[in-house]
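In the design runs reported in the main text, the only information available to the sequence generator was the tokenized backbone. The following block is the verbatim input for one such run; it is reproduced so that readers can re-run the procedure and compare outputs position by position.
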């Protein structure tokens, strides 16, 4: 069984751990840098990206997260996690982990619509996936190697670049396992290649 980690510093990490188990993989909540070595893939949860970054710095995670990416291991950023993965964040000088070739803007959907649900058509998953958006970011620009998987109101809300998967919404807050299962499949593929 593949092992999928969830960065457990802040945000909705417990829900992701449950979703990983429901998708048939072993879940490991990552609280210490050394635990990254145990896992084949990693989910960066939603929460608050600036708070998460503070904790990433406090516990010295940044370089190890970049190394994790360099090893070719799959990473899935949801909401704040998507912001952590992006190579560029609007109105911010330096990126966080900065490994996925996308530019993101934070809190994109307006104050009146701080949180909402929308039915999405996600490539490779289906046309009936309910996305839960909570003060969600969106993807403003993608590089050549990035495949757009879903849009909502003409804004990109899910994308994939090889080992990297990112979405604006919270797949772990619904009962629908398809998005997590998609990521677990990416992790399985990557472990096959690594052997
Ligand atoms: N607005 C948050 C941020 O900028 C993201 C919200 C979320 O993860 N639900 O980090």
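Verbatim output:
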């Amino acid at each position: 069984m593949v092992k999928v980690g969830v960065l457990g510093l802040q945000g909705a990490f417990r829900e992701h751990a449950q979703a990983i188990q429901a998708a048939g993989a072993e879940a490991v909540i990552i609280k210490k840098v050394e635990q990254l070595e145990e896992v084949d893939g990693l989910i960066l949860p939603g929460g608050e990206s600036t708070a998460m970054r503070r904790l990433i710095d406090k516990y010295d995670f940044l370089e190890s997260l970049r190394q994790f990416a360099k090893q070719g291991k799959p990473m899935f950023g949801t909401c704040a996690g998507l912001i952590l993965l992006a190579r560029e964040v609007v109105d911010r000088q330096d990126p966080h982990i900065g490994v996925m070739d996308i530019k993101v803007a934070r809190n994109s959907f307006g104050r009146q619509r701080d949180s909402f649900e929308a039915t999405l058509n996600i490539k490779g998953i289906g046309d009936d996936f309910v996305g839960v958006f909570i003060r969600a970011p969106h993807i403003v620009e993608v590089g050549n190697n990035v495949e757009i998987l879903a849009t909502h109101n003409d804004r990109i809300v899910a994308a994939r670049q090889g080992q990297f998967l990112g979405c604006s919404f919270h797949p772990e807050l619904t009962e629908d396992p398809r998005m997590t299962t998609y990521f677990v499949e990416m992790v399985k593929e990557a472990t096959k290649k690594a052997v």
